Amino acid sequence: MKLFFTVVSFYLCILIFINLYRAIYGPDILTRIAAINAIGTKTVMILILIGFIYGRVEMFIDIAIVYALLSFIATIVAAKYFLTRRSIE
Amino acid sequence: MHYLVTSTILFILWIIMSGFFDAFHLVLGGLMSLLLAHFSWDLLFENTKMPFSKRISEIFRFTNYVFWLLYQIVLANLHVARLVLDPKLPINPKIIRVPTKLKKDVSFVTYANSITLTPGTITIGVERDYLLVHAIDDKVADDLFSGAMEQRIARVFEVDEKP
Amino acid sequence: MLHTIQIIVAGFFILAGLFFFTTATLGLLRFPDFYCRLHATGKGDTLGTLLMIVGFMIYEGFHLLSIKFVLIPLFLFMASPTVTHSIGRAGVSCGVEPWEKKETEKTEEVS
Fold it and tell me: Is the pTM of the predicted complex or chain greater than 0.80?
């Protein structure tokens, strides 16, 4: 089962790199913000998977919850900045 | 009363997050939740004059609605997955205006969140009597205009607004 | 025997979550417009997270930890629509024009 969790986390890492392509070469800035948000969601899953692999879920689940909160706040702040600025340039 | 309920919820959250059951941590958590509830007791509930029996029945109806919403989310997510995996990418995106008759703030927020959670439609603007919705396909737009979701939310939250 | 069934069901849920993550990422790559990409990221990730967490809970069995597992999708189901709506409203307020199918067909006819 540990091997299965490792394979799943590698697959999520590949998905994160595909998202990172959009985050770097994205045509506009709002696409980049959306891609970063998607990366944050996948990172939460990877943190829980690492907890299963090392056998210490009760510690890594706290880190995962805190990471979810922080990523949510970061995305909201970035979107709010472009909401008040009223132009993409 | 609301003060007590808020501090109880905070205390339960403290126990879940800490995982300790000895006396020191329990007393510390109780003092902390009482202090936090003293500052923020009117933030959690919208209408503080509502009696609690109605509140509990509202919570039951809301749970029922959440399960219906989960079923809808799975159905619509499969629809969008089929759109994505199709090599021709048969999408037809457009911005539509959805008129709504909901009055309360809570039902408004629930409606907008449900529209966004159901794949294929996202809310991108909120006015007092309509919502700006970006729909990706003709099928999901027709589903939204049929108004089934709005009727269910009105049955949950606005049942005793006008007898 | 029961343990084997538990592991198989958990693995099935995790693989279903991975499928929705994959469709979300493919949608982010393939859709032509920023609004359409929001469709892909906001919702495939939410359902994928829910399914994977259900798989973890079945694998782990019930104790105090599973209540903590419930907290993550509970928070995400409130946060993810908020994020999507906030980015979309920023796009509307910045005046980003949505992509439409008919315009591209017209330009193809002209050219």
Answer: yes
The predicted model gives B11-40 an average pLDDT of 84
Q: Enumerate the domain spans of chain A.
A: 2-85
DSSP conformation letters of A41-65: HHHHHHHHHHHHHHT-HHHHHHHHH
Range of the domain at C15: 2-110
Least confident of B57-66, B90-99, C27-36: B90-99
Q: Does B151 touch chain C (CB under 8 A)?
A: no
Report how many domains make up chain C: 1
C46/B117 CB distance under 8 A: yes
In percent, the amount of chain A with pLDDT more than 90 equals 28
Taking the CA of residue A40 and the nearest CA in chain C, the distance in Å comes to: 10
Rounded Cα distance, A7 and C8, in Å: 16
Question: Under a CB-based contact definition with an 8 Å cutoff, are residues B61 and B156 in contact?
Answer: yes
